[in-house]
Every structure is written in C-alpha cells, then in structure tokens.
Amino acid sequence: MGKLSFNRLKRYVNPEVFDFDTTEEIPPLEGIIGQDRAKKAMEFGIKIKQKGYNIFITGITGTGKTSFASSYIKKIARTEERPNDWVYVYNFEKPAQPIAIELPAGMGKQFKKDMEDFVEQLQRDIPKAFESDSYDMQKSEIIKKYQEKKSELMEELNTLAKSFGFVLKDTRTGIISIPVIEGRQISQEEFQQLDEEVRKEIEKRAAEFEVKALQIWKEIQSIDKQARDEIKNLDNNIGLFAVGHLIEDLKGRYKVNESVLKYLESVKKDILENIGSFKSTDGEDMPFPLLMRKEKAFLKKYMVNLLVDNSNTDGAPVVFEYNPNYNNIIGSIEYESDFGVATTDFTKIKAGALHRANGGYLILQAKDLLSYAYAWDALKRSLKTEKIIIENISSQYGFLSISSLKPEPIKLDVKVILIGTPYLYYLLYNYDEDFSKLFKIKVDFNEEMELNEENMKNMASFIKTHCVENNLKPFDREGVAKVIEYSTRLSEDQDKLTTRFNEIVEVLYEADAWAGLEGSQVVTGVHVKKAIEEKIKRVNKLEEKVLEYFKRDIYLVDVEGERVGVVNGLAVINLGDYEFGKPSRITVTTYPGEEGVVNIERESKMSGRIHDKGVMILTGYLGSKFAKDFPLTLSARIVFEQSYEGVEGDSASSTELYALLSSLAEVSIKQGIAVTGSVNQFGEVQPVGGVTHKIEGFYKVCKEKGLTGEQGVIIPHQNVNNLVLTEEVIEAVKGGLFHIYSVKTIEEGIEILTGKSFEEIYDKVYRKLKYYYGLLSNKKEDKGDK
After folding, report:
1. What domains are defined for the chain?
2. What is the 8-class DSSP label of residue 647?
3. Can 651 be counted among the known catalytic residues?
4. Choosing from 332, 651, 663, 742, which is the catalytic residue?
5. Catalytically annotated residue among 457, 496, 625, 694
6. To the nearest whole number, what is the mean pLDDT of the chain?
7. CA 701 to CA 556: how far, in whole Å?
8. What pLDDT digit, counting tens, does each position of 650-700 carry?
C-alpha cells in the first residue's frame, strides 16, 4: 500500500541520451523496429517455396504491416528471376478454347508485334500475288483446258439429245431437255395437249436419254471439279509462295518454343484453307462497313493477345491489388455488342492480379478480399490447383446461359501475402478448412516493443525517415524525447513503446505544421506537445459536455465529504478516435434477508456477463471472510447510478466491494477518492485497463468542482507501470492537490477510503452479518412455533 510519488506517474525520457542536436545528423531507419518475431517469420515464409506456404500478416491497424510487406518483399523480389510472359492465341481446332503460350520475358511483346507485322504483310502480299499477270495466265490456261473438254462433252450431250428428239436448254435451275416435234420445240402446255400415247412415247424416250446422258453429265461434273481443284491448287501454291517464307521466318525466330511452332503451322494451314478470303475481289458487292467488319474478324484470328508482359519487370513481380474482386483476381472475358448480340473472342481475355503476380508475389488486404463475393473462393481454388482458370462469374455459378470462351488454364507459381486483423485470421483459421492448408505462415505483429536505448535510437531514425520522405523539418532531441514519451502513453506502459506507427506519424506531421506556423526551422518538444494537445481538442467535445454535466450536477458525483455505502467508480468511454475516463457513483444498500448480493444492472438487463461475474465474486469474498462461523444471510442491492448505456467488465468489482463493506459496517467513505480495480474471492486486487484515462477523468471532474488536496484515485499495484499521466495531473500530484494510491488488497484500500483500520471494519461487518443471521434465525423459529 502506498501513495505514489509524482515521478512514478509517467516515463520521462531525458533528451540528453541522444548524441545529436537534430535528426539531420542521424541516418534514416532501415527496415522496421520492434517486430523481430514478425521479421523472422517473414524471412522464413519467403524462402520456403513449397505449396501452401503462403503468408498471413496479422496485427492491429497502424503497426506498419503493409509498409513492411511492401518494402521487404520488393527488396527480395529484385534479387529473383524475372518470370516469363504469357499470351493467348486462337485455337483453330477448337475456337472456344484459346491456347495459352509461355514465352521468355520480353518475347511476348515481340511475338505480338511480329504477328501484327505478319498480318499486314498478308494483306499486302497475297492480294498482290493474285493480281499478277502470271497468276491470271495460269488460271486462264486451266480454265481454257477444261473448258475445251467440257465443250466437247456438251456437244456430245447435245448430239445425244437430238438423237432422242430433244434439245437442251440452260436455265437458272440447270440444264433441261425440251421435246422437239416436226422440228419445233414444244412448250409444257403443248405437251399436255398431246395424245396420251404420244406423251408416253416422249416420256419413254426422255427416260432412255437421261440414262445415257447421266454418264456424260458425270464426266462434265468431274471436269468442273478437276478445274476447281487445279485452280485451288494454283491458289494454294500462290498463297504458299506469298506466305511460306513469312511463316518460315517466324519459325526461325521462335524455333526453341514448340508451342509457337505448332501454332504457326496451324496459321499457315488456315491461311491456305481460306486463301480466297485474301483476294481483293471477295465481298466487293457487300456494303463497305460489313465488308470491313468481316475482314477485321477474319484477320483477328492471327493476332496475339499479350496477357502478361514482363519486359519491364525488375526481378520478380510484386503486385498490390487494392480492389480484389473476382474479375480483378482471376481475370475476365469481356464482351462487345454486335448488332445487339453479345460477342467475344480470345483477344478480349483480360489478365487478373494472379496473372500479373505469377512468378512473384501478390499482396492483398484480407478484409477487402472477403468483402467481395466469390473472390476468396476463386483465390483458394487457384492456389489449390496451382492453375489460373479464367471463367466469367456468370458462367462459373450458372447465373447466365450465354456461351463463353474456356481459355486454357495457366500454371500458377505465386506467393500470396494476406494482411489482416487477428480477428480475421482466427475467423478464417477456425471456420475455413482450407485456410490452414494454404496459409501456413503467420507473421504476427506486436502492438508494442521494449523501451530501451536501442529502440529509442531506432525511433529517432524513424522520425528522420519520415522527415526525409515527407519533407518535414528536422526534430531536435527534445522533440524526439516528447514523441517517445507520447509513444509510451499510446502503449499505456512505462516500459513499452507503441508500434502503432500511424498515430506517431500523425503527430510528426502536425508538430511540423505547428513549427511552420511559428516560423521555426526545427521541430521542438514544445511543438510536439502543442500537436498532441490540439489533436485532443479537435475530438474531445463529448468529454467537455460530460464535464459540464458534472459541474452543473446533472451527473451526480460527490468529490468531497463522506457517505456510507457510496463509492466513486471509474469507467472509460471509447469513441474510436478518442477515449476518456468518467466517474460513476456506485451505491449499495444492505438489510437482513437471504437474497444475497443482487446486481440491479443485471436484473434490469443492462449488464454484461463479465460484470455479473464480478458481482458474484463479492458473495464469495464475504462468505470466506465473515461467514465461517454462521451462514451468510443478507440482502444487498448494488447499482451504478445514472447508468443508461449498460455496464460491462469487472474493473469496478473492488469498488462495489468497498461500498458493500461500508454499508455493512456503517462506516463512511471519502467521496474525494475514486477507485478502479477488480478483485478475487480472497480480496486480492487485480489489474484493469485504462487506468491513465480513468485517473485523468476523475481529476478533471475534481478540477471542475474544486480541488481540495484530499482527492485522488486508488488503483491496483500491478497498474503502476501503466500510468502515463499528463503533465497537469503530475503537477497536481507534485503540489499535493491530487493523490494516486496503489493497493494489493481490499484491506489496504478500505483503510485509505475510510481512514479506519481494517480490523475495526472487519469487526463491524462481522457483527452486522451475525446480527442479520440472528434476526432471520429467530424469525424462522417464531414461524415454527406458530
């Protein structure tokens, strides 16, 4: 038990420990500070290449997880090999299944350009070859040769027809035979008017003619086919002459890649099969826009879709995907409207983050990834199969029946780094059976680090780094010392520094701004202190309103005098961007009965389970301390006065016990002393959180109502190292206007609150409980007699 000296109330950092005048004289920080465990885990996770050893970086917000991941992985990636390029090309055998081809880094871009140049040459050289005099001459000779044969057969056919009494006539529907009577061709009407015997005789001759003519007609059709085949062969030879050397040239450039060679052979085959499409006369009767679209669609088959280009990548790729939806992770297939119809082709396949990071590292925020439907499942599927399968989400889950492409899967070799909170890590670990198989490396960031000479020097270098990177003024040694003291306040521990560096950086920026407003070229401790104070003023409106309510007695709390069964407890209100302490009056009434200790908050359903547990412990303490000779028989009511938002936590359990003992002993408690701390059944006071804010909150209320020199706060002795109080409170303690007490047991605390020895309090409580037992025992005996 003891009253704490002012020099125990915060960690003072002596500026003289720094061997520099300003941060301009020291080197910037390399790496990260206070995260040795995380660094070792990261190093191991990056080195191990086996399947499933992806990384999850976890820690509270603001500890530098993303910055560390970025800088460390980029440094490692620069020393690793540059991965290959990937392209998609047309599949001539199965057009709906584009082919993926892997090429050395930089060659993908060159292959794409080579094929574009190739198509341009096709459009120029092939039509030119067909427009040559040599081609026209050869084609004419073929046509003439077969036309002569055909004419001879047609003459033979005409002679045969004449011998059967027919003449042949060429019509739109083909060649027909017309009967000849007395040297004149007759019409269909005239044929119908002939005698039946004459008609039958003509039909008989026609049947005989068709049988004999069929053989000649087959020979004519054969000649036509031979002519077409010879012309096609000529076209192929012309086409091969025009395109063959281009294909061979490309094969020479990519001779080491079997996939490219196979593709080029397919290109040559397709061109020769469709050589007529390159003739300038094709489609000349078609409207120009339709002709252009048809020609563009035809030539697109020979283009290359450069999916991943690593020509400018320095080492292994490091990809941050800040919008990790399904398409951005896996890739997508885009569509365009063609006369109201959705169409697509292999050139509309777009790469996702996995493609760009393939052969390197992909960094994702776990919260963002999980906020998008299907993105997490798609990532897991890719990591499990080690393949990237591009499939539109509508097709994947059967939302639409529209036909789509099925690109050939691309093999995946990537290290995924997820960054998230501990809550997300354990949520995935416990409820997703795939998570532990795919993310076997946990990089756990501490939220605090030891306050030692090395880390203080590192903090100074950290400040130097941000001064350089963000063009801030240099900090002098007093400014650095104040920043470190603020860091201990954020950690709520005199022996620790916070690793929530984002909050430290905010103070650096704002202190620099205040120095600028004052025209100073150096940021001093005064500017740091000003930045911290002004930062609080921007967000403490609610606290000021609460203090006003205390001053006007809207919130009822006595900070002087004495009362029985009334103690001032302390709570912390956390608004997210600001937290502050607020005292609450706790009152207890006791009387004979068998209900035990009743928590009114619990009865009104305004308390949490932890608070209810704390109240139940009070009964255990009373029973073990005072009721070993007789049963514990009492009724007690405990309540947080003017509590409208509910009560949770056990940090007021010792406070409630003090009020309970006061009520039973009928001994007054000093209202100028507030209390925080939990208690066990043996009366040992246990540490709680937020002691700094609680003390400052009660101090501010006392200040509003008037400091008497008798006011203060009792805290658990284990929380002394958690004190990082403001200079104002420390000065008040130094001047004897305010006091901080640390206690180990309830016995020590009750003596401070009442000014009486615990033995005296014990005797009074014991007598009161025994009296209650006697009353109830007599009452039961009286009922029995009746």
Report:
1. 16-31+448-537 (1.10.8.60), 35-83+314-445 (3.40.50.300), 545-781 (3.30.230.10)
2. B
3. yes
4. 651
5. 694
6. 86
7. 11
8. 667 888 899 989 998 999 999 999 999 999 888 999 999 999 999 999 999
